Amino acid sequence: MSGGGGDGAASALERLAAHRPDGFPHLIAARERTDDALRALRARFAAARASGGAGDAGLGDVAGGELAVGRLPYAWAAGALPSDAAVVLLGSWGRRELTAGSDDDWLLLVDGPPRDGLGVAVDAVREVLGGERAGPGPQGSFGTVAFGNDLVQHIGLEDDDNRNLTRRMLLMLESVPVVGDEVHRAVWTQVLDRYMSDSRTDRRGPPRLFLNDVMRYWRTIAVDFAGKHRETDEKWGLRNAKLRTSRKMLFAGGLVPILRCHALRHADAAELLAAQLALPATDRVADAFLDAGQPDAGARCLGAYDRWTGMLGDPAVRDELSALDRETAMASLTFREVRRLAAELQNGLLALLFETSLAPAVREYAIF
Amino acid sequence: MMPLSALNETRPMLAHHPIGASTGFLVEDRGDWPALVDAAAALSPFTAELAALSELELPGLLAYLLGAGDEVPAFRYLSVHAPSKDLKLSEPKLVDCLARLPASVDAIVVHPDIVDDPGEYRRLGARLVLENMDTRKNVGRTADELAPLFAELPDAGLCLDVAHARDVDPTMAGAHALLDRFAGRLRHLHVSSLDADGHHVPLTDADEAAFGPVLKRCRDVPWLLEAPLPS
User: Fold this and answer.
1) Domains of chain B
2) ipTM of the predicted structure?
3) Inter-chain contact B220–A301, Cβ cutoff 8 Å?
4) Set of chain A residues whose Cβ sits within 8 Å of the Cβ of B79
5) What does pTM read for this prediction?
6) Is A348 on the interface with B (CB under 8 A)?
7) Each residue of B85-133: pLDDT tens digit?
8) Buried (b) or exposed (e) across A264-275, using 16+ Cβ within 10 A?
9) Could you give the 3-state DSSP secondary structure of residue B43?
10) Which residues lie closer than 8 Å to B15 by C-beta, 6 or more apart?
11) Mean pLDDT over all residues of chain A?
């Protein structure tokens, strides 16, 4: 969960950047880009909400003509967005790593049990968000409604299908609300409480249910990548590059804070997780490197990720990677550079996990 | 009370991964690349450096890497040490040969003292890795001496030879200066001790202790042994 902006104090990423001559220019720029885009979206929703009560007044009347969104005012006027719902953006938005080619993966998150009658609200959200950026992918996990009860109560077993697991993980690890901050926070807290309530309060250690769920999610992503490309290599290069980098950062951004709970009492662990998961994944990882006394390795690790972020924002790079299949990838200097950067990222994370004070916790909890 | 994990702080060699071999010290198999690669893989299947220290060895290494296909173990990080002696080829032709190394080679280590025209080496891109030199050389020993080369080779990485660094500055301040200046370029380490003639020999306890603070700053990169492990 990302708050979508800083409070003025230097972030962990900024503190780690002091250990590199050129800092992390692409990541810092991406944060500013994300914050600007988020502010614009919030303004757009606020304008839509304001226009909703104005009968047939067009949104342009409210927002100076630049935010016209068709029939949306009528949807809002009809009370399309219920008070127990939030519009939540996921992925690069939640990581504060927005680039020109980022998808707008979003959910209409409802705090409560499943119910019907939210189609108008989903249409309204889609209309406000849609347009100039890429919408959610075709898998159906996003761009629709998700219910808090499913995310909170269906952890494990048959009802916790791939889609539910994905939504829960992205909510916890990389999400940011555009509308309905309190609803988003409430569901997020319920999931965290559920994870914490399942771990023993009389022992120190990481919440095992949360740890297992995060590790399960990472393995699911990796297995699904193979499954997705068993029959077609379409977009193999770009997906492989993201698996090595952005997806790995997502995983590490969950794994590392959870393992950092290994020496904490239950209440302190909950507090640490609430604080850490409110930050972007890169801040969580940067903070762990600094806390472990490994600024050099951290600077190289996040430096590689910074370079990748810069590459991902280049449309020509995205196009080249998208066109690669597994047979042709290694002939591409661009793919080879991504592979090198991904290795630096992984090597840094492995050093953090296995060659610092985290190592005993990894051995104790991360394998079995 | 100090936590047990602090042991990692005092003996970094105990915890590090990956540690691999440079084939440079496997003198009995010199020229027999399949045997050298097998020996390196026996120490670590994750990382290795194939050392063609003499230019005479480079054609055989190229032929082996280009022709052996799946016979070459898939190291996670594979370095090739470019020739530094018996140099006969012109610089462009030498770089031509190095550029032909297959994509499975992640790093190509070059001694700064053989570089006459840095522009030629730009063709190696991010695979080019410059190694800091010992006191037998008069270039590339310190951060200040390497800086102009790196300025002309923006994508090049650094191979920190900790024994060379101690040879140049026994306090290891020079090694820290290299890391301070070029930390973002660091790709891997060469680890060994040096004898009185500057030859790589197994790591001594004194050197391991002296190297400790530097090794702690380099836990995220492969460490390649340029001499056998101490028995």
Assistant:
1) 19-225 (3.20.20.150)
2) 0.92
3) yes
4) none
5) 0.92
6) yes
7) 999 999 999 999 999 999 999 999 999 999 999 999 999 999 999 999 9
8) bebeebbebbbe
9) helix
10) A354, A355, A359, B8, B219
11) 88
